[in-house]
Design brief:
Number of domains: 2
CATH architecture of the largest domain: Alpha-Beta Barrel
Number of strands: 9
Radius of gyration: 18 Å
Bound molecules: adenosine monophosphate, zinc ion, fe (iii) ion
Strand content: 15-25%
Oligomer: single chain
CATH topology of the largest domain: TIM Barrel
CATH superfamily of the largest domain: Metal-dependent hydrolases
Number of helices: 10
Structural class: alpha/beta
Strand order of the largest sheet: 4-5-6-7-8
Helix content: 40-55%
Largest sheet: 5 strands, mixed
CATH class of the largest domain: Alpha Beta
Distance between the termini: 29 Å
Shape: globular
Length: about 280
């Protein structure tokens, strides 16, 4: 049996492993196929794709688009799209700018709470800030001895509704799905978890979602079985991935989800039929 991990982050967004380190880890764990799904950029995918042969691993085009729908944030995974598609690249650039603006607001809030540092320090820490996220802030604050651990940083300052938190305003969810599909790809709802039990699911269907990330380390058995049921009922593709951020999270997640590649081939065939 061959396996894929379809949800991996690199240093091009808020992961803490380079594309090459991710390939090395994936190869050590005997994966045949991976998708680099950085937030709002395809740079990590492109770099991994260039060097993948050395590791005997296939890297498929992937991305995780951050999106807004009213007050809510949804993550949309894209696979098998044309990574040169202009409209998609523009959408990703818009999101990166929004992340930048949001982070400026967050830094102001954190400064206001007595955490004295300059935005540029954080920018450098985040690899010159192409895709800025809260995971960067958490580790940065630990490095500055302003938090004891990333968990402490989230609990005291940057978790949702904590005093240093700011919401980002990203491209609309329906638009994110359309961008992926118009670029020839498949749009998948990332880690739907409990949201799949609520009204989020009917919105996603209406907006044209094509698949559900059923297998994710945060999903309970009950959520997995509900997501499998919904996928069958509505004819949606099933995907799975570890959402590994290297040592950015409290544990290394790669290897926790082993998605069988015969299921992935269903997605690939569907995309190829549409070309
Ligand atoms: P952002 O996209 O900048 O809002 O950052 C989201 C990242 O922060 C994701 O990787 C989340 O898993 C992580 N995150 C959000 N809340 C927490 C929390 N309470 N503890 C640890 N990580 C969190
Ligand atoms: Zn992330
Ligand atoms: Fe996500
Ligand atoms: Fe992710």
């Amino acid at each position: 049996m061959k396996f894929a991990d379809l949800h991996l982050h690199t240093t091009y967004s808020d992961g803490f492993s380079s594309p090459e380190e991710v390939l090395r880890e994936a190869s050590a764990r005997k994966f045949s196929i991976i998708a680099i799904t950085d937030h709002d950029t395809v740079q990590g995918f492109l770099e991994a794709d260039r060097i993948a042969e050395k590791y005997g691993i296939e890297v498929i085009p992937g991305v995780e688009i951050t999106s807004s729908s009213g007050a809510r944030e949804f993550h949309v995974l894209g696979y098998f799209f044309d990574s040169k598609n202009e409209a998609l690249l523009q959408g990703l650039e818009f999101n990166r700018n929004q992340r930048f603006n949001r982070m400026k607001r967050m830094v102001e809030k954190l400064n206001g709470l007595g955490l004295e540092f300059h935005f540029d320090e954080l920018w450098k820490f985040a690899g010159n800030g192409e895709v800025l996220g809260r995971l960067h802030v958490a580790h940065f604050l630990v490095g500055k001895k302003m938090a004891q651990s990333p968990k402490d940083a989230f609990e005291r300052y940057i978790g949702k509704n904590k005093p240093g938190y700011e919401k980002g305003e990203y491209i609309n969810t329906e638009e994110a799905i359309k961008l992926i599909k118009d670029a020839g790809g498949v749009a998948v709802w990332a880690h739907p978890g409990k949201d799949s039990l609520g009204e989020g699911f009917s919105h996603m269907l209406r907006w044209g979602i094509q698949g559900l990330e059923v297998y994710h380390p945060n999903h309970s058995e009950a959520e997995i079985s509900n997501l499998n049921y919904l996928s069958q009922k509505y004819g949606l593709y099933v995907t799975g991935g570890s959402d590994c951020h290297g040592k950015g999270k409290d544990r290394i997640l790669i290897g926790e989800i082993k998605f069988p590649i015969d299921k992935l081939e269903l997605l690939r065939e569907a995309v190829e039929r549409c070309v």
